[in-house]
Amino acid sequence: MIELNVPKNSQVAHYEFPIINGKSPNKFKLVNNSDEDITVTVVIEQFGGIPDESYT
Amino acid sequence: MNKAYKYTLTANEHKEITFDVGVQRLAVTNANGTDGDITIVTSEITKTDSGEICSFVDGANAPFADFIVNIEAVQSGTGDPSPTNVRPISGFNAVNVGDISDTEKVQYFKGLLDGTYDFVDLGSLTWYYLATTDTPVFQGDVVDAKKPSINCICPNYTTRANFWNYTGNDKCVAFSSTRLNISNSAYTDATAFKTAMNGVYLIYELETPTTSTITPTEFNTLVSAFGLQGWLVQITMPTEAGTVYGGTLDVKMGTLIVNHALVTYDGSNDEAWNDFNAVQGFRISESLMPTTYGAYGISNQFICYPTMPTNMGIMIGSNNRTIYVNYVYSLASTIAEFKQYLSQHPLQIVIPLETPVAYQLTPTEVRSLLGVNNVWADCGNISLKYFVQSTQPMIDYIDDKTENVTRIFKATDNGGGVYTLDDITCDELCLYARNHSNIVLKVARYNSAIAYDIFILSDYIGTSAVFRHTMITSAIGGGYVLYVRELQADSGTTTNVLTTRGVNITVDT
After folding, report:
1. How many Å lie between the alpha carbon of B361 and the closest alpha carbon of chain A?
2. A23 is in which domain, residue-wise?
3. How many domains are there within chain A?
């Protein structure tokens, strides 16, 4: 599972995951390190590969 | 198409999320707020086509909404399968999907994948000059071509039967009963002609169909040489799926569903055949099959019938998952004899699977349709659906964040493809969003239970006006909804600045 730190308000963070042995990640952990409730939007910009929860 | 998901995280919360697809690129933003203020809707028009070749002649300029290839097992040979006409069954380790822009030439290019046609670089042939015919010809040997034949095409020459028997037929091509004949009055020397023909391709029908070996690179070379647009996509089946004997392949989404399998009976000890003398045959249980009577299937030795055959043949399936092989006592009348027969003549049967198996492949890039296109696959029929940009879009105006549609503008309101709420254009809207870092443009499928398919974040709109315009117009043309919302950076609350200005949408036709 891959941990994603949520950026500050209105900023966008991009992550890329190369397909390894035909597999790519499908399980993530969103981490809110702030003391406030937040709304997070996650955009899958490109999908592909066989889903692998153990992708690291 | 991008997909977006929204989550609410409380303070210091860690939330695990799982998608049903593998992810190659991801964007995460912390965009507090609620849904938008303006919704612009185009009426969704979809067109579908299905069959061996799907053709589009209206210049649809949008990606496929669906692109499904039906994979079907194939049998070599012709005629009804029988013990005296065994037709071996084969499946697919890879699927080729082709497309060219020329409707008249599609059969030739399709033939390159089917193994009924092949191609040759004319510069690779040995040529002879024959000046004694009414129209002088250069003759070359193409050993595997069908002869005589005019089933060939070449961008430099016109196909014409027996043209050498008449005068004045320059720049023609055809096969006589022995050789390829080409007329070209610019040359009288075979060596010079051969040199000039380097890089000139001929596609011709084969005397005997074979297994195609054409590669995407070769296909693309031919498409270019013939001055066409087109492509060939080769999709390799995942190793876990093995050879596929039946299923569906979603080319757009990269999803493979395997719903048939090949079973081979060779009379081995573990095959529990039962005698079924009421129909002078034998039957065997197959646990993989559904409890369906007369399910679709094929066999290498017998015709498969949807009901119990009354002569030699097979019925696949029943409520006790049984395969029936009827009226074969002429081949073998006891189980032992039948097993011995199978050991010498293995019986192949493609059966349906009660539980289809799904595989996620790397999605294949399927380009937008531009102009006239003809799409096909080498493993069975295909079905396509694509969006056509509406000439009569509707604009739904959601007032003041209530999400109630208060106004609907149809084409009749303004006509001509320009629809006005107020005085801001689509491009201006994008530019506005670009210049205000807290704008979020959200595009979602109209009337869909899915929240949003695309989010266009202001920080992510990009600097390219072309990109912005493409994103917005393709979204609108694809029957998507455009939400516009401005977030106040300071307070995180939502304001409604654009509802007072409105939006013009210009629809390209």
Report:
1. 6
2. 1-56
3. 1
